[in-house]
Inverse folding.
């Protein structure tokens, strides 16, 4: 069992380079199978979620070549077959094979996806979208058979601006007959990344990044190229590390607009921050003011940074409030932070963080990916030694987290015992 051990309290100095975005890459890789040719995706993060998708692509007959952070995928010998439960449940993003295979072959057999256990995470909107395009969905326990004689464009309103449903419907609609309009679409930058890639292969998508996406069906998608955008959640996590322990810590390869909801909050808290074109410099202060934060879809404060942010709020003067509006069960990090010395009260979908409190190293468990990131940050800040168990969750989403933090002065190791 892998564990992360951290001796906390070390100043962070130097530079951290941000990798390609997990939540873009995990959509781009399945999207690639809509091509009948060869596609290249650059700046792929080296994380286990990508390995799991690679495995599914190869199982379907694609030829995948990985050279450093480049992935070249040849789809010429692809075959449509059932994706087994053991492969689908390794990660959330296996659901993108639904839209991609349905769009390409008009039929898909797959199981309910896996991913972090942070709420119910239904896929009803994805299925509703496929049905609106003319598909028939058969649900048999955990298994889905989705097929259509013909996919036809339609107007689809999403009850919630779901990232997954927006991308999945785009994937299913690129080769449908006529025009599809997704209303109340999610606006996350990852969606723009996927639409740009599909357009590069020959799709006709406009409006990605706004709440109305228009997709004009085409007959064929050919060769394509794209680059994964920088990971705004990884960036945000290290920016928070800088606010906790930084001495002019540089966070490189970022798109500052993508993390503005975070940097504006940090400014409100008095955190010393200099923002440049594609990097920022951040330092800690002991004069942090309390803030109130509510998670929202982009450009609001991302739910994926809510747990890492909690660690920072522990050190603020006064009571901060954090409201989680996206997932019902994303406070599993809180009991561990409290064991480490925080004073956080859970009140339904809100937490109240009474600060400032000093954290002390303890043995804790990463219950999910971002809870794990929160505990890594807590371990970096705490006095003494923190041991984090179940770190596989963290390695699913953060490329080289140990090396990146070690390089800037953290005392952190991955142990296998
Ligand atoms: N929802 C429904 N029905 C659906 C789909 C979603 O009710 O059919 C609800 C969800 O229950 C949730 C809300 O809509 O309350 C938003 O969910 P969304 O579909 O946007 O989330 P997702 O696509 O499953 C992606 C990321 C998450 C990230 C969210 C929100 C991937 C693989 N996952 O999930 O990333 O939190 O968007 O931005 O892209 C993470 O990286 O730690 C992570 C959980």
């Amino acid at each position: 069992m892998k564990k992360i051990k951290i001796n906390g309290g070390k100043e962070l100095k130097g530079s951290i380079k941000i990798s390609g975005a997990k939540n873009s890459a995990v959509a781009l890789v399945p999207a690639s199978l809509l091509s009948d040719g060869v596609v290249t995706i650059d700046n792929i993060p080296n994380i286990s979620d990508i390995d799991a998708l690679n495995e599914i692509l190869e199982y379907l007959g694609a030829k995948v070549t990985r050279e450093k952070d480049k992935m070249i995928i040849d789809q010429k010998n692809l075959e449509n077959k059932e994706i087994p439960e053991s492969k689908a449940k390794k990660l959330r993003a296996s659901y993108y094979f639904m839209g991609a295979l349905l769009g390409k072959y008009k039929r898909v057999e797959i199981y309910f996806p896996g991913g972090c256990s942070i709420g119910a995470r239904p896929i009803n909107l994805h299925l509703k979208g496929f049905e609106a395009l003319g598909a028939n969905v058969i649900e048999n326990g955990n298994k889905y058979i989705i097929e259509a004689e013909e996919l036809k464009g339609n107007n689809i309103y999403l009850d919630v601006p779901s990232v997954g449903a927006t991308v999945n419907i785009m994937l299913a609609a690129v080769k449908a007959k006529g025009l599809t309009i997704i209303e109340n679409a999610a606006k996350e930058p990852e969606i723009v990344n996927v639409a740009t890639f599909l357009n590069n292969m020959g799709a006709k998508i406009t409006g990605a990044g706004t709440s109305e996406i228009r997709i004009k069906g085409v007959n064929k998608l050919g060769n394509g190229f794209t680059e994964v955008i920088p990971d705004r959640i990884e960036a945000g996590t290290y920016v928070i590390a800088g606010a906790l322990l930084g001495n002019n810590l540089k966070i490189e390869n970022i798109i500052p607009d993508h993390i503005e909801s975070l940097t504006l909050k940090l400014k409100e808290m008095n955190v010393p921050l200099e923002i440049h074109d594609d990097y920022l410099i951040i330092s800690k202060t002991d004069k942090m003011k309390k803030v109130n934060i509510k998670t929202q879809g982009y450009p609001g404060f991302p739910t994926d940074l809510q747990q890492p942010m909690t660690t920072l709020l522990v050190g603020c003067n006064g009571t901060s409030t954090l409201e989680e509006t996206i997932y019902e069960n994303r406070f599993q990090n809180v009991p561990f932070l409290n064991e480490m010395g925080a004073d956080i009260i859970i009140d339904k979908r809100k937490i109240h963080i009474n600060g400032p409190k000093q954290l002390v190293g303890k043995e804790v468990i990463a219950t999910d990916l971002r809870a794990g990131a929160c505990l890594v940050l807590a371990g970096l800040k705490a006095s003494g030694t923190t041991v984090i168990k179940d770190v596989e969750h963290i390695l699913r989403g953060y490329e080289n987290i140990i090396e990146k933090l070690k390089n800037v002065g953290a005392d952190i190791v991955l142990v296998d015992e």
